[in-house]
Design brief:
alpha+beta; OB fold (Dihydrolipoamide Acetyltransferase, E2P); 8 strands; binds zinc ion; 21% helix
């Protein structure tokens, strides 16, 4: 059984079974992982309050077949989560594979949340998307101005107007 202590940014959290939760997070040391939070749905869970989407936490994990969260410490929280911060979180959730640490991605993600601004251009570059040479998925026009999280595709201004606001990440 391996134990890890690493900084992490929470991407999402969902229920599993009667009592547990699963936290999906991007960690500095391990990249994106899912960790089980035993008893996370109980009202007195000591871990749950620290694990909110966009939250920055130091976590202790054990790995034995799967990751289990055993402790979460919260440094001073990010000042505020803006719509841009939430879109950054959505982008990382949509595009990063699990279990692949990437220090550049970690630093960019952390910095964009700390500064409460979206830095989608840099994130796209790190994740291997070339926004400069992409063309609109619907009409073929360039330049593209936004990315649809649910479609995993780029669109121009005009075609992107049909998408819902919550699904959009602006390219710059
Ligand atoms: Zn278009």
């Amino acid at each position: 059984m391996q134990e890890y202590v690493t900084d992490a940014i929470v991407l999402s959290i969902h229920s599993r079974g009667e009592a547990d939760r699963v936290v999906d997070c991007y960690t500095k040391q391990l990249g994106r992982i899912e960790a089980r939070m035993i008893g996370g749905r109980k009202p007195l869970s000591k871990l749950s309050p620290h694990c909110v989407p966009g939250g920055f936490v130091t976590i202790r994990l054990v790995e034995k077949n799967q990751f289990t969260l055993i402790d979460a410490l919260q440094p001073p929280p990010f000042r505020r989560l803006t719509p841009a911060s939430l879109r950054t979180i959505a982008l990382v959730r949509a595009l990063t594979p699990k279990g692949v640490p990437d220090n550049r991605l970690w630093e960019t993600l952390k910095q964009s949340l700390e500064e409460a601004k979206g830095d989608a251009g840099t994130l796209f570059r790190i994740l291997g998307y070339d926004t400069a040479s992409a063309s609109c998925e619907a009409c073929g026009d360039t330049p593209v101005s936004l990315f649809s999280v649910s479609h995993h595709e780029f669109f121009c201004d005009r075609c992107g107007a049909r998408l819902s606001e919550g699904d959009i990440v602006y390219c710059s």
